[in-house]
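Board notes (copied after class):
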Amino acid sequence: MYRQLKNISFYALVIVIVVISVFPFYYAIITSFKTGTALFVVDYLPTSLDFTNYAQVFSNDSFIRSIWNSVLIAGSTVAFAMFLAVTASYALARVRFRGRGLMLMSILAVSMFPQIAVLAGLFELVRFLGIYNTPWAMIMSYTIFTLPFTVWVLTTFMRDLPVEIEEAAIIDGATPWNIITQVFMPLMWPALVTTGLLAFIGAWNEFLFALTFTASETQRTVPVAIALLSGSSEFETPWGTLMAASVIVTVPLIVLVLIFQRKIVSGLTAGGVKG
């Protein structure tokens, strides 16, 4: 009886957490199909399928351009972050040198600073480098804030790889670059997919830096474009169009997570169990 009650309580808690997590997106989908006064009527089940809001979003050339900007910036961020994180994790996990632990802690300490705390300094750096209002401003800032997580996850994963594999490659004459690319990387796909996907999601959803480092409409990313859809008051805000745009930019992330969910779980649990 106690075990059944425990199981029921556990599943009830899971259902509550899932509902709380999924309901905002579900309600956004329902609202995206409403127009006019129907937007202010609370419905928990779809009453009609009106694609007017989606048509307005896709007919907005600046919003489509913002999507491509986000794809370019997020993809470039993942590429740079993965390259730097893989090479850094090899050095931190496999090469013995003085100060290795201190360096790991320093990398972790970078992630402790909130974005707003470094915004002014990073803005001055962006202006000094002459990359203000260009994609490189976001790529650089996103890569900086993505590296601590990616380096820590990949370093933990690489530490658990058998030393014998590396020793055999060294005996065969493999260079460190050959070991990284031909020996370790094929074994690190779960961790690479996890860190890469989370870095992509972080860059895709980032708002503060994208708003600060861009001035022209052609350089805006999706979060900024969605924010600028809002009107000056509640009644001037095109809620239907806003919800449709939010759904459009969220669905690709959900699809990616569903496709790679097994590798994400494997990557996040890397290093948790040692055998």
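Comment from the instructor: Residues 271-275 have pLDDT under 50 and may be disordered. The longest helix spans residues 61-94.
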